[in-house]
Amino acid sequence: MGMKAIWGAIAAGVISSLAPVAWAELPVEKAVLTDAPLVPPPITRTSPAKVIVELEVVEQQGELADGVQYTFWTFGGKVPGKFIRVRTGDTVEFHLMNHPDNKLPHNIDLHAVTGPGGGAASTFTAPGHRSQFTFKALNPGLYVYHCATAPVGMHIANGMYGLIYVEPETPLPAVDREYYVMQSEFYTAGSYGEKGLQPFSMMKAIDERPSYVVFNGSTTSLNNEGAITAKVGETVRLFVGNGGPNLISSFHVIGDIFDNVYTEGGTLANQHNVQSTLVPAGGSAIVEFKVDVPGTLVLVDHSIFRAFNKGALGMLKVSGDEDKSIYSGKEVDAVYLGSVLDQSELEARRLRKEFEKTVREDPKLQKLSKAILMADGQNVYSNNCFMCHGQSGEGVPGVFPPLAKADYLTKRAAAKNRDELIAIPLFGISGKITVNGKEYDSVMPALSTLNEREVAAVLTYITNSWGNSAKEFSVEEVRAAKAALKDQQVARPQH
Ligand SMILES: [Cu+2]
C-alpha cells in the first residue's frame, strides 16, 4: 500500500483503529510496581499519560508458613502480585510475560478494565511467550486483578492475584503512610502447620475448607520483621484486597478505629468510625486511620479462628510517646466478688485460702503444695498466657514461641539461677531469642498484674506441663528474684 492509499484508508476509517493517533500524543511512562506491603508513590501528574505495565508470571516454590513450602503461581514473583498504580484517564499498555520455566499458560483479568474478560481474552499466554493489550482506565477505584485461566479457582488459589489502583482525577487526601495488604486462603493437602512441600487440595478448595488464611501470601509476611510501621500522630491508609478464592474478610485492626472507609474500594469515603469492614472475595476496601498511641496494632480477619488458627494475622508497629489521656494502661486490679456470691461461697474461699496457707507452712505437706501451684498455675496460664502461647504451649509458628518442650525454657528452668526465667512474666521480654532452633524477634509485654504467688504458680505450671519437667518455683524464689532484678530493670528499655 502506498502512502496515498494509507491516508485514504485512515480517512475511510478502515485502519484508524490500528493506528492509535491520540495515544501517540500522550507522555509515555513506565509504571512503578511494588511488592506488598509497599505501594507505589502517589501520582503527581494532573493529566493522562500512556503507562507501560510489564508483569511477569513466575511459578515458584516459597514459604507459606514456618517450615511449610508451597508452589506459588505469581504475578511478579510474590504473593500477592505487584501493586499497580495508574490514574483515571490513563492509557495502559499492558505486557504479560510467562516465564519460560513455567509449566502452564496464564492470563490476566483486571477488574479495572472495561472490555471482554478484563483483559483475559487478550492475554492468554503460554510459557516462554508474551502478550500485549491496551486499555483505558475509565473508572477510578481500587481493583483486584487475577489469573482467569481454567481451572480459574486453582490459578487463584495458587496465588495469582493482586491490586491495581486507579487514582481519581482528584486524588484522595495525602496521608503519611500507605500500605498494601491482601488476604487470601490456601488449600493444602496437609492441615495447618504440617511441614514440608504441601500440594494443592482441589477437594478442600471446592468444599471451601482452607488450611490457611493469610495476609500477603504467608502466615509470617506481616509479622515481626515484616510488620508495617507508623509513628504516633501519623495517618495510615491501607489498600486492602481479598484474593479469595472463596472467603469474605471481616477486616479489623485490633486497637484502632477506621476514621474513613472507602467501602468495596470505591472512591467515596462513605463511612466513618468503623470497627470492621467487609472485603468481598475479588474485592477491596480502602481504610484510613490516625495512630494516636504507641504499641502493636494487630490486623486480623475477625472471623477470629482464621486469625489465631489459620494465619490471618499481621502487625502494625506504632512508635512514639504515650498519651495517657487516650490510653492509660491498666489502672486498677483489685479483687471483685460480685453481687451474687452468697455467704457459703465466701466461706469456701476463706477456707481454701486457710488450707493453702496451712499446706505452705507445713513441711510435711510440701508435696501437696506443688499440686496446688500447678492447679493455680493452670488458672493463671489460661487467663494470661494461652492466647499467645496456645492451650498446650504449642505457640504460633513464627509469631509466639512454644513453651512445650522448648529448649529456651527448660534450659533456664534447670539452671541454678532462674532469675532470667522469672523475669519474663514480671518484666516481659523483647528482642531476638532462639527457641528450638527458630528465631523470634518480637515483644511479650510485662504481665505486671500478676503477684508473686501467681508468677510462681504459672512458672511451675509451664515448666511441668506438656512434657516439661523442673523443680517447682516457690514464692520465696520469685520474691528474691524480683528484688534482685528490679534495679536492672530501670536500665532496660520499656515496651
Ligand atoms: Cu494462571
Walkthrough of the structure:
The protein has 495 residues and is of the alpha/beta class. It is built from 13 helices and 23 strands. The chain has helices spanning 3-11, 21-24, 120-123, 152-157, 202-207, 304-310, 343-361, 366-384, 386-389, 407-414, 419-427, 452-462, 475-491; strands spanning 28-30, 50-65, 68-75, 84-87, 91-98, 109-110, 129-136, 141-146, 161-167, 177-186, 196-197, 212-215, 228-231, 235-244, 249-254, 258-262, 271-274, 276-279, 283-290, 295-301, 313-319, 429-435, 438-444. The strands form 5 sheets. Strands 1, 2, 3, 5, 7 and 11 form a 6-stranded mixed β-sheet that branches. The radius of gyration is 29 Å and the shape is elongated. Residues 1-19 and 490-495 have low confidence and may be disordered. Bound molecules: copper (II) ion. Copper (II) ion (CU) is lined by residues 73, 106, 147, 149, 155, 160. Copper (II) ion binds at residues 73, 106, 147, 149, 155, 160.
Briefly characterize the structure.
The chain is an alpha/beta fold and 495 residues long. The chain is built from 13 helices and 23 strands.
